[in-house]
Automatic annotation (TrEMBL):
UniProt-annotated location(s): Cell membrane
Similarity-based family: Belongs to the plexin family.
Listed name of the protein: Plexin C1
SMART domains hit by this protein: PSI (SM00423)
Molecular function via GO: semaphorin receptor activity
Transmembrane spans: 647-669, 789-810
Lineage of source species: Eukaryota, Metazoa, Chordata, Craniata, Vertebrata
GO biological process: negative regulation of cell adhesion; positive regulation of axonogenesis; regulation of cell migration; regulation of cell shape
Membrane topology (UniProt): Single-pass membrane protein
Residues of the Sema domain: 1-179
Organism expressing this protein natively: Meleagris gallopavo
Name of the gene this protein is made from: PLXNC1
This protein's UniProt keywords: Cell membrane, Disulfide bond, Glycoprotein, Membrane, Repeat, Signal, Transmembrane, Transmembrane helix
Amino acid sequence: MVVMHQPHRSEHSFDLQGQVYLDCGCRSLLISSSLIRQEERGWWVGVFHHNHGDRAWDSTAVCVFRMEELQDPTCVYITHFYSGTNCKVQSIKKSPTLIHSGLVAVYGTVVLNQIVLFLGTDDGQLLKAILNEDMKSNCPEILYEIEEETSIFPKLRLDPVDSNYIYLFSANKVRRIPVANCGRYVSEQECLSAKDPYCGWCSLNQRCTLKENCTRSNSTKGWFNISHAPDKDLKILLRFPARNQISVSASISKTLTSCIIKIVKPIEMPHENVVLKNSSCVCSLATSVILDHDCLVLEASLSSNSWNITETFQLENCSRCIHDGECASCNWTRVSPATACQDICSVQNSSKDIITAQKSEHINIHSIEPLWISTLGKSEITVKGENFTHASGIKLILTGSSGCKQEIIKVRNVINDTQMTFALPPMRKEAKSVCIQADGRKCSPPVTLHYVSLPACFGITPNTSWISGGRKITTTGRNLNVVDKVIISDDQRSNLTISEYPQNKSEYHYLSPSLSHATEGKVVDMIFKVETTFVPCVKLHYHPDPVFINYQLHTELDPDLELKIYKENDNLNISKTEVEVYLSYMNGSQTAKIYFSVQNITEKPDRSTILCKFKREGTEKIDFSTVKVFVKLGNFELEVKPTSSYIYLYVLILLPIVVGVIIVAFIVTRYKSKELTRKQSQQLELLEYEIRKEIREGFAELQMDELDVVDSFGTVPFLDYKHFAIRTFFPESGGFASIFSEDIPQSRDQTRKDESFNMLHALICNKNFLVTLIHTLEKQKNFSVKDRCLFASFLTIALQTKLVYLTHILEVLTKDLMEQSSNVQPKLLLRRTESVVEKLLTNWMSVCLSGFLRETIGEPFYLLVTTLNQKINKGPVDAITCKALYTLNEDWLLWQVSEFKTVTVNVIFEKIPENESGDACQTIQVNVLDCDTIGQTKEKSLQAFLNKNGFPYGLQLNEIGLELVSEEQQRELLDIDGSSEMIEDGIRKLNTIAHYKIANGATIKILKKMTNTRSDVDYSDEHCHLILPDSEANKDMKGSGHKGKQKFKVKEMYLTKLLSTKVAIHSVVENLFRSIWSLPNNKAPVAIKYFFDFLDTQAENKRITDPDVVHIWKTNSLPLRFWVNILKNPQFVFDVKKTSHIDGCLSVIAQAFMDAFSLAEQTMGKEAPTNKLLYAKDIPLYKKEVKAYYKAIRDLPPLTTSEVEEFLTQESKKHENEFNEEVALMEIYRYIVKYYDEIVSKLERERGFEDVQKQLQQVKALFDEKKKCKWV
């Protein structure tokens, strides 16, 4: 063993000096080591393994050597080499610090003057152990477990950049694991009592965290750990005041409330006559079985009002002290429960004596089965031995390193004198020491019991079987020896148990059961049963039994026999070792058998051949006329019939017939092929003509067409603030809109509210309570995403007049959300609406930006909606599906359109009482299409009236009718009437301008309808407009007007219409975008500037240096959370109706808007979606403008607190008396009542909420009283 030596105290390095043999509890095989340094001190830590072959509970151990112990070796390599002198190598023995079944790696470091060891195991566990000043370990904590249970490499390393993480190396992966799991401690006392030097209590967040994860962690009051704990030096002290007495006291003098003392080794002895004094306690111990050579282990637990402590002591040479009071040679030390009195050398030397004594006086243990169980425990293990019925107090004692404390399990059933059973509880995976104790005597020699994880399947060979079963199946996996039963699950029958207790750890062999009830192939599940848990393994495919056609027996090779068996091809992949072939024949009056040797199985496209051979010995004759051939596969056995000699005759008869049929089929096929080719040529020519025509017209339209944007569209129909807020707060809850939108009576005194609502309002105005309430609600499983959004909106309504307070709540909740997201992926922050704070941010932006939206963005946004509608209506629009020729969305493209033309009609508007303005134009020229329905003509007429006069016509669409004015007669125009065209399958086509043969210059009169007609209802699948039904798509259309056009339409020919629509509205879209991301007068809206600065500050506090993260935060909080919602929903801002087609087009514009804020580089290919390709060339320019926009906001002078609060106060005053706050408070109270017990429980666990609990109880009492009076 190489030794480190420190030549000078001032240096922090060691050089190679010599060699020495190290012994760690009779373990000398070094597996891994680590050097720990702390200024001038150093320790060398090693993992040692004993030389035994089997893996046992004590196979490995950790020993810690001080560097001073290794500085004086007796043998040095250099001296020995040159002088030739013989030297004896020194041997240093150490007691183990920690004993474990499979340690393979160690890394040590010093944190807060405590040595922390990170240990890797051969089954993929990462453990953490903390050593005390005596170099004894606490109970190791499991930091991480590799699911595949692969062994950890011998080297562990801390992250050189962030020492709060450690690198874990395994066979196929490197993992970065946190060094502590501080979140498991929920209270300050638990956090500090754990004595983990990495963890401390963060007073601001009221959580146990790492120092780096706590805000204001540099302050002593902000974050404090065990070094700041008042009882950090607390220890237990032992004294022996008199014979058979032990006195226990704490190093810090405090009044004790509880004291427990007991000896746990060599036998468990309860305390007797405990006398509890102020700061110590004394107990008397039974001494009848304590011998001089016994290693005693004593466990003491003390408790006071502010702390509790438990320590384990190892007493050596103390039996005389206890018996006679002579304590000069008694030595007691604090030890880890996992290593107390576990010296492998003494166990090996004394085991023979113990066994001998037990054979003569005590129970004798022969075996314990099984010794491999899962982490679920075992309902029954069997112990076999002798003298069981004469023993009393039989117990099984489990000892392991992860639990530290012994598990004592009483016997379940003593079956007879030689057999008894125990039930083992669930535990974490590890190898444990198990022994049997009876009659208050020593335990039997320990054996190793392995707790392992649940079994897992890796594969099955083969994965098929024939239905009759009996095929040998091999399953490979992990921990198969803990399986109780292997079950084949069949949905048509009860489960089939095919085996119990597989003995092999990694392989399991069984014969597939028969599924005789199945006539066809089926798939069954192979399932492992472990206790009451069923673990799915693999699927076994059952195929029909193999079909053997016939055989040929060749006897010309006498004395050898050659047999060929022909079978149909299948998916069974049968091997030659699975096939058993034998031949039977009559030998006189007896049946004789010959078993063939299968040579090979060859597969051809039509069949497979099994070649078998048999070498005869002697001159025995075989009567081939009595021969029968049998094939056996598992449970399947079949007699194979010989090849028929008449088959060749059948072939000769059928051959001419088959040839004739082939010749006739060839002639007929050739004729039909020529005819089909001719028709296809005609169709291709027609299709080519159509494509050329459409492409030329599309090109001409792109170059020449211009859209006459309406200069005056009248007053922008803004919604008032109340309706704008309702639609943004509750986009999917129409019922709440009616509640909040009702006008509040003017006579109502707003200053006088019901006492219950006043108290509830005061309660939610308590910042700490409100934050605790929201966090508690979000932890409830049935508090859904919809509930979170509704709660946030109710809270916004209730605090509408207290925006300053609401903003503070938003800050706190956003910081908490950042703490949750930082451990996973900070770029995902605010991307979705899955928490209260995310919906609250959306509502807050809507409130604070409502004025900016109305004053700056409203007019260009309304112009975009109007222009888009105008462009869509310029071409045909299908009245049933709403698809249009001009659109931005390929999904809404009307590519099945036929020829159309524009018709100009004179529309006379009848005067109505609702519109008596003398300036209103009563006769207007309206451009419609000959393919427009009567309903579409009405819409265009009303829109033309609005554009001409600046105000709408007084009647709604369903209140007006059209009448064709001519010299002959007046004719009412309807979508459906007696003249409507009837298509096949009972489908009627809607009437159009062309149907009524309305020409240019015709006069149409709009009048008020007296009765409702068919044209007012929604049309079903029984009607069609421009898109003909599917039943007609593959048939020639009747009539010259349709024939040859409908079936040759190709969607891709009309993609230029998307570009045409984009060009028509491009300037309007760009104007809207730049209105959003520009800074009028070099000023940003207060809400945007404030929240962006807040995000910048949080990024600095969390030490986030990646600018992309902050960019994404800002994008998720403003464009994604607010602007996209507005762009896709104009009905939130204006009194307009959004059609599904307009929604599809606005989705394309909104996607382009979000692409401008994205940091990802877009690489568009030819196969990219058209919705992306439309704005692909514009996005790079937009991205530059967005980055400049973000930079300009960041460069603006920061807002003062007074400026922000003044803005929020003004906004609060604007919206006073807009909503019925009591309704919102009532909805909030319903959530509080629903989760009342959970909320109260949370408040009881937190400090400083005593007054809040009383207020909450008073609020509940008031509401309960109102409910009794039927006020609520």
